[in-house]
Design brief:
With 274 residues, the protein is an all-alpha fold. The C terminus is likely disordered. 77% of the residues lie in helices and 0% in strands. The chain is built from 15 helices and no strands. Among the domains are: 90 residues, Serine Threonine Protein Phosphatase 5, Tetratricopeptide repeat (Alpha Horseshoe); 85 residues, Serine Threonine Protein Phosphatase 5, Tetratricopeptide repeat (Alpha Horseshoe), CATH 1.25.40.
Amino acid sequence: MNTRNSVHALRRATASALLAALLVVGCGGGEKPADLLNQAKEALQKNDHKTAVIHLKNALQQDQQLAEARFLLARALLSGGDPAGAEVELRKAQELNYSAEQTTPLLARTLLMMGQGDKVIKDLASAPLTTAEARADLQTSIGQAYLLQDKPQQAEAAYAAALAAQPGYAPALIGEARLKATGGDLPGALAILDRGLQDSPRLYEAWQLKGDLLLAQGDGAAAMAAYRKAVEVKPDYLAAHAAIMRLQLAENQLDAAAQQLATIKQFAANHPQT
């Protein structure tokens, strides 16, 4: 090999080495999986699911057998609106024998988000969970699954079971409020929601439902306030953003609606509503 070829070969080797080093830095900067897990947990506490996903994927690149990372990644993906990805990670966490007390309720919520309420009832309803929170969480999802199947009596029984497991469990109260609303008792539904929100003011779905019920009663201003509380808690909650924009359009607030649409496009650019 002549000198010129040797120089070119050396340059290529150096460039390859630098690229490899950059890739390592981009995949966690040499941090240990335990450190990445802690950073992901901190991000999840701040509702920053995108950052959590990055940390968890970096941790799993180093060790694919990290059951807790699989579970936390499922949580983060579900929060980010990717239930299909969440299900994949939950199944892997289960294969790695991660706690059923945590995986089963989250799997139920994941299946519900994908419209698979029948699987929740068929596959998970008899899961032998022991902790009060896990039972309340699962029974609430079962109630929602029955509600989707237009079986209010079974739904009511599931919500009651959730509240028996953990009195005052706010997601179950939301379910009972939906039942009341379905039956035409809007004041009763709102009263239940207010009870739940008093104890758990960060339940964005409860604020969304409250806005819907207030709007149904003709109180647009109060409905708007409820929707804004929902997006305050979860800034990328599309349903509440869309409800705000619909109200603005109904009130001919065209400039405000345009600004609202621009906000939605920042996190849901490919969604049909945008």
